[in-house]
Structures are given as structure tokens and as C-alpha cells.
Description:
Blueprint: E1 22-26, E2 29-32, E3 37-40, H1 43-46, H2 55-67, H3 79-91, E4 96-102, H4 105-122, E5 130-134, H5 143-146, E6 167-169, H6 184-197, E7 201-206, E8 210-211, E9 217-218, H7 221-233, E10 237-241, H8 256-259, E11 265-268, E12 280-285, H9 286-290, H10 311-326, H11 329-345, H12 348-352, E13 356-362, E14 365-370, H13 379-385, E15 388-389, E16 396-399, H14 407-422
Parallel strand pairs: 3-15, 5-6, 5-7, 7-10, 10-11
Antiparallel strand pairs: 1-2, 2-3, 4-12, 8-9, 11-12, 13-14, 14-16
Helix pairs in contact: 2-10, 3-10, 6-7, 11-14
Residues 104-106, 109, 138-140, 207, 212-213, 241, 243-244, 269-270 line the site of pyridoxal-5'-phosphate.
Amino acid sequence: MTASPLWHPYAQMQTQSPALKVVGGQGAHFTLENGESLLDATCSWWCMIHGYSHPRLIDALKDQADSLCHVMLGGLTHEPANQLAAALVRITPAGLNHVFFSDSGSVGMEVAMKMAVQYQVQRGRPGKHRLLSLMRAYHGDTTGCMAVCDPEEGMHSLFAGYLPRHHFAPAPTAPFDAPGEAVEGDIQALREVLEAHHQEIAALLMEPLLQAAGGLNMTSPYYVQAARELCDEFDVLLVFDEVATGFGRTGRMFAAEHADVTPDIMVLSKGLTGGYLGHAATLATDKVYGAFLSEDPGHAFMHGPTFMGNPLACRVALESLAVFEEEDYLGKIATLNAILRQELVADERLCRHPAVNDVRALGATAVIEVKDAASLKGVQGFARQHGVWLRPFGRWLYTMPAYITTPDEMRQITDVMKGWFSATANSG
Length: 428
Ligand SMILES: *Cc1c(COP(=O)(O)O)cnc(C)c1O
């Protein structure tokens, strides 16, 4: 047992070895107190898209700290919040014209759900007070979010009795590049749930194209398009949780762009500040926003996290976006994707390995899915010996690198991921 008072996330504190102590970082690497440097294949839970110690982000933070670290957004505003709201409207799919800030992805999703339900009440449909989510979804760890995560495998089944009940459609199964016909079964399954329950459904929530924490399930743009059409048909709002997929992770700025779809509400977080501070944005269309406009003060959106629109977070998010656009990050992501495909997806030996179920990649994301979680036991230590930080979960050994990861570093990561399966002891 460790003597530290620090309680770690998702950790069995009795048996887990002590957490490694990080003292700094540079580029795609972080440094431990013993001087060991590890190449971060996860960019710190998918948010440190510029890597560690990016000089422009640090300067922006320092400069902002000199003028204004924080002020409430209730009745007040400031330039970084105004500018970031405008920038997000500019870069997100056309029609998302209103921005509500909060402090984390989970809270951003709570805001989205509350907005959807209140929207339905204010347009005279109070019976539409439940949500529709997908199996394998992950939308966060707060209570409202837990209730829309996969109820069987989503880490929260323990709380089933405590959580409100929503509806779930089957997880889409057709892969990203499936032809249209191959997606019809998934679409039909979604339609059936809407047909049966639309009268009580306020919104359909989805992680477009990439169900991330639910096992890196990469799905088809046709499914996303069909979801838009079905939501219109059944008078249900469409909410995209782009907390993980936003800011380039799927190869486009937002996953919605692959399908050319505008959701009614969209949530951004992880990559928003380049990972340098916790923050989130919930965007809404004029249609949603309009339902809150009234002479009645009771129709206002009654939500306001203390730290929403924090000036430091907004300022570093603006700088993150500027670097992203000026330094052709989408080009860098395409380069990383080509390496991930060549080194993992096209590797016959890896794909045919008896322990391996599937190997797939989308944008700057790749995963080796194994048949049995046991065959990943020990992989984290193996990777560390080769200078790489991997953090697999369940049956998924994945990488979501920082976009500044160099081609050589990317190959170092894929070599370690493959290397685990060519070491004879791990043949499944
Ligand atoms: C990480 C994540 C969240 C939760 O974000 P937090 O900042 O951890 O609260 C929500 N949705 C998706 C898709 C995520 O990947």
C-alpha cells in the first residue's frame, strides 16, 4: 500500500504499483523524476495535441496571467471568451452559432443534455424528457453522463439503480469505409428504437465515427448522415459528443465533417485548450438557442459553472487553434495516419496473429483489438522498457499520439505495439 494521500483514477489502490512521477516534458515526451523519458502514445488521455511545453501555448498563458486570470462570466465578459466563442463558431459545422462554456467534457455533456430537455419543454413537448444513446458509448463520469454510457460495459453498471433510465440503440458495427448498403442494418436498428420511443426522446447522443472509450469503435459516415435524417423525421435533437473526436483526431477538424452533417448541439473539450487547461464548449444552433428566448426569465438556461469561460483557458485555446491552423496540423495528422496504416493495419503478421481480433486506424488513432484482455497483461511494462508510454484498457491496445509526434517517433510507437505480439511469450 502506498502512503500517498493521492487517490488515483480508475485505480485499485491496494494492488496497483505506485504511479510514476512526472517532472516535465518536451514535445511528445514526458520525463520522470529519475530522468527517464517516455514517448507518450496517448497524449495524456487524448488532449495534449501539441505535446508538452509548447512555447507558444506557454507564452499565451503567461501573457494572459499578467492581465486577467479569472473573472465570473455572470454579467461580465472578456476578450478571450468573446474571441474563442467567435473562433469556435467559425471552425465548427455551419449553423452552430452559440457557445456555452464549461470546465470539462463531462460537464459540457451535462449542459448539452439539460439544454436538449429544456428545449423540448419550452416548445411544448415536456414528454420528451429521455435521451437516446448508443451501446458502447462513453460520455463522461458525472451522474447524468453515466446514465448515457453503455449500461453493460461502460464502467458504471454498479450504479444502475441510482441512474435515470434512458434508451439505447445497438452500437453501429459497419466500419468507417463500409459501402452504403453495409450500413443499412445499423441504421434500421436505430430507426426501430426511434419508432418505438420517439415520443419521449429529447435527443440522440453520439460520438460521431469513433466511439472512443467504448473500445475505439470506428464507424461509418453514412450512419452519421442517417442519424441526422432520422432525428429530423422523429423530431429529436442530434447531439454530437466531439470531446474525443474534435480537433483533428479523425483526420478532419471535426468528425461531423466526414459526413457533412451539422448536429443541433455539439460538445468539445479534450483538444480544445491543447490540453493545457481543463475547459469545454457546448455549441448550439439558432433553432436550439431560439427556444430559450422569451419575455419569461424562467425560460433562461439556468446553468453556470464557476469557471466557465476562464480567461486563461480561453486564451490558451485560441493559441492552440492558431498553431493548429498555421502549422498545417491536418497535414501532420494525415502523415501520422499513413504510418499507422502502413505499420499496423497493413501488417499481415500482426493482423493474423492468433491473439489479435482486429487492427484499425482513423486519423491520428489506431488500435489493436485482442480477443482476450489477458493477452495485453504486461504490455505497459514492455512498452516502458522501449521508452514508450502506452495505457491499454480492456481488449484495446491503442495510440492517440500528439500531432507533433515525428514520423520516427510514430514508428517507435507502432514498433512497440507490434513488438509485443512478435515476442513469443505473448502469442495469445
Ligand atoms: C473524455 C470524454 C468525455 C469526458 O470528458 P472529461 O473532461 O473527462 O469530463 C466525454 N465524452 C467523450 C467522448 C470523452 O472521450
